[in-house]
Amino acid sequence: MTQPETEAQPRQALQKMQEEFVLTQEDFNRFARLSGDHNPIHVDPEYAASTRFGATVSHGMLLFTVLRGMIEAHYPGARLQTQNLKFPAPTFTDQPIRVTLLVEAEQPGRVELVTQITQQERLCLDGRCCVALAEELPR
Amino acid sequence: MNKNLSRFDALRIDDSASVTRSFDRQALRDWCQLAHIAAEWPEVPEPLIAGLFSYLLGEELPGHGTNYLKQHMQFHAPAQVDEPLTATVTVTRLRDDKALVNLETRCTGAGGRLICEGDALVLFQC
């Protein structure tokens, strides 16, 4: 799963973290129960087949959930200060999604990340966040 | 005016919708499974707070047919397990040439404590 580091810049060695996941219809259904968002485009395959998407699409915040889990895996106990999210393309069940975290800036106790999710080369989530690292947080 | 935009045309600046909900420990455990997190999570995770906004946008204002394009969030304080959280979305800008709706998104907790503020952009073409 090596990727060409096209974005490498001389000022610092950028750290890139990537992982693949697969979301199933059951994952969509579980997020619908958690969020209360039972929009048929997410949970009703028959209805969704008749829309321009042709199949159910993920809740944007389920993608954010997977992304947030990956931030926790790499920065345990950290808290999000800000998160920007764009959803340029739909995300479907059963095709792998690739989650990427790219360190854009680091300061004491704080890191800025570019956050992206792609599915079959389509950019489905495009974002950016500031994370406060755990050792700086009052508990 | 394009008659296909009749639902868009019914929207007004300052239209607003709210929901109050709390998340219990079981909800946090269910969320952790979806996030591939093995440990117990001590606070309401940010994507569940964001989910309150997406629920409102998709189900209430503007409602079904909403295409979520962008969300920005600034988190001010953590939300606690079982704490009643009130999320509100308010229309701030309407661009009828493109059927775009900008909304302010805000979530408060117990005693009106600010948890999260931000804004959203949705496409509402139906």
UniProtKB/TrEMBL annotation, chain A:
One BP term from GO: fatty acid biosynthetic process
Enzyme class, UniProt record, top EC level: lyase
Key word Lipid biosynthesis present: no
Keyword list, A-Z: Lyase
ATP-binding as UniProt keyword: no
Coiled coil: none
Protein's name according to its UniProt entry: Putative enoyl-CoA hydratase 1
From TrEMBL, chain B:
EC number(s) reported in the record: 4.2.1.119
GO biological process: fatty acid biosynthetic process
Keyword Lyase included in the entry's annotation: yes
Keyword annotations of the record: Lyase
Gene Ontology terms, MF aspect: (3R)-hydroxyacyl-[acyl-carrier-protein] dehydratase activity; 3-hydroxyacyl-CoA dehydratase activity
Annotated protein name in UniProt: (R)-specific enoyl-CoA hydratase
Organism: Microbulbifer aggregans
Upper taxonomic lineage: Bacteria, Pseudomonadati, Pseudomonadota, Gammaproteobacteria, Cellvibrionales
Gene coding for it: phaJ
